[in-house]
């Protein structure tokens, strides 16, 4: 695994932990158990789109386990794991059909559905299901906001990566032509090819 990718995963895990801690300090905006903003979900959505399913799953599980150990409980870990895994699976399933915001909403709703189902199994009661309408509504609102944030960050990152790749491509062309002893005209043509390629990629987006 390349260094840049490992570094990004580490940063995302740390960021998810920070969001989880901040969220634990914020009172629920709806006085019902289980209702949270889901700040850390923006990190999972971002990881899913920029790194892939395996990396997003690893980040999500690591965040849930560490959060439960540091400022949670074994029961909260069970609820969170159920929600995190199911929501990620649903996001992967619908990722090919919808955009970032819609996928984020699907993930948020799926997360709450999984937690309610888990609570019903553990408590052996369907009373918790009465919270579903409110939980789904709050999931749609928070999922939309966090999905919008994730979409903006992903777009900015892609633009930054394209600039880095273009710069590296230019340096490689210069180095290749210098070592080969090619003429200045050939080196210039190589540079123009790289610039044109990255310009076309930017236009496609």
What does this structure look like?
By secondary structure, this protein is mostly helical. The chain has two domains: 3-147, Orthogonal Bundle (Arp2/3 complex 21 kDa subunit ARPC3); 158-204. 81% of the residues lie in helices and 0% in strands. The protein has seven helices and no strands. The longest helix has 49 residues, at 132-180. It is globular, with a radius of gyration of 22 Å. It starts with a helix and ends with a helix. The model has no long low-confidence stretch (mean pLDDT 80).
For this structure, the CATH topology of the largest domain is Arp2/3 complex 21 kDa subunit ARPC3
Q: What is the helix/strand order? A: HHHHHHH
CATH class of the largest domain: Mainly Alpha
Task: Round the mean pLDDT to the nearest integer and report it.
Answer: 80
Helix content: over 70%
Unreliable stretches, pLDDT < 50, 5 or more residues?
none
Strand count: 0
Q: Nearest-angstrom radius of gyration?
A: 22 Å
The number of distinct structural domains comes to 2
For the sheet with most strands, the description reads: none
Shape: globular
**Spatial gap, N to C terminus:** 26 Å
Structural class: mainly alpha
Q: What is the count of DSSP helices, taking H or I runs of 4+ residues?
A: 7
Approximately what portion of the residues adopt beta-strand conformation?
under 5%
CATH architecture annotation name of the largest domain: Orthogonal Bundle
